[in-house]
Amino acid sequence: MLNVYLSGEIHTDWREQIIAGAEGLDVAFSAPVTDHAASDDCGVAILGEEPDKYWHDHKGAMVNAIRTRKGIADADIVVVRFGDKYKQWNAAFDAGYASALGKSLIILQPPEHDHALKEVDAAALAVAREPAQVVDILRYVLDGTLPA
């Protein structure tokens, strides 16, 4: 079985596309909390309010990091998606962390990000453009089957 951590942007359905496409494969998926409000507010909801936005965000980032570190550490493969809507500094951090741990890294990004992400891409074992390509990689890794 492959354990796959799906990191990165939370504004499109790319995770659902990969999970649906991988149905029937021996893959277990994990991911960060993708409810934006819950992710932003988890620290203060659990540890107490903060009047300063910096500390509000800092508490949330630390609580989220517990989940992220566990997910990446347990993963055989880490998929990091860079989307169009926002700068995903956290996704770049996750890619670097996964690379430092020696995890197999797949980057999922549009071609217009190629230059900005060249160092991240250089650390990856694959750079995919579409979620279906990630599924094809997982299938190939598991059973050596090429796409039809």
Task: Reconstruct the topology from this structure.
Layout: E1 2-8, H1 14-21, E2 27-30, H2 36-47, H3 53-74, E3 77-81, H4 89-100, E4 104-108, H5 118-123, E5 126-128, H6 131-143
Parallel strand pairs: 1-2, 1-3, 3-4, 4-5
Helix pairs in contact: 1-6, 2-3
Structural key phrases:
148 residues; alpha/beta; Rossmann fold; five-stranded parallel sheet; 6 helices; 5 strands; 16% strand
Distance between the termini: 23 Å
User: What's the CATH architecture?
Assistant: 3-Layer(aba) Sandwich
Cα-based radius of gyration, to the nearest Å:
16 Å
| Widest beta sheet: strand line-up | 2-1-3-4-5
User: If you consult CATH, what is the topology?
Assistant: Rossmann fold
Q: Kindly state the percentage of residues in helix.
A: 40-55%
Number of strands: 5
Bin the strand percentage.
Answer: 15-25%
Structural class: alpha/beta
CATH class: Alpha Beta
Tell me about the biggest sheet?
Answer: 5 strands, parallel
- Given as residue ranges, the uncertain stretches (5+ residues, pLDDT < 50) are none
Helix count equals: 6
The helix/strand order is EHEHHEHEHEH
Mean pLDDT: 96
Shape: globular
What count of domains describes the coordinates? 1
Structure description:
The protein is α/β, with parallel strands linked by helices and 148 residues long. It has a single domain, classed as Rossmann fold. It is built from six helices and five strands; from the N terminus they run E-H-E-H-H-E-H-E-H-E-H. Strands 2-1-3-4-5 form a five-stranded parallel beta sheet, with helices on both faces. Strand 1 (2-8), helix 1 (14-21) and strand 2 (27-30) form a beta-alpha-beta unit.
